[in-house]
Predict the 3D structure of the following.
Amino acid sequence: MEFIKNNKRVIGIIAIALVVIIVLAGVWVWASFIYYKNCDAKDCFDNSLLSCSRAQYINAGNMTFFYKIEGKSNEQCVVNVELLKGDLNNQDSLKLEKKDMECYLPLKTIMAPESDIGNCHGLLKEGLQEMIISRLNSYVVQNLGSINLEFLKNTTRV
């Protein structure tokens, strides 16, 4: 009888230890892979960006971006950027809504991920580049006459 009582006690202790281990593992998985700190202010997001800790932030302005810091990869901070709302005065930007890109920023820096688009990859980057090229093309076409006049003035002085 004594042997059975001791075994029940050992089995109970093992069961409790397993439950504790499973709960701790679940908390670790949640904290490491699922949880993102919700930032309501730019300062909160900037601090998370500085440490490259998982956080998410919505930056509302002419265009509303949703930023999600994914973490570190190859000595860079990976930030996912999604355009939630384009500029109402720009039909091209409205076409980019719900598109995203992944940006790779240097560690320990605070900057808008889309400010250096060369470090980003995805459909949003391609769309933004097309928008910029289209605007530059329109500018050149609209100002071609004045550009030619300036060129002619400069060449006649030489």
Observations:
- Residues 75 and 107 are 7 Å apart (CA to CA).
- The chain has five helices and six strands.
- The helical segments are 2-34, 42-51, 91-95, 123-142, 144-157.
- The mean pLDDT is 82.
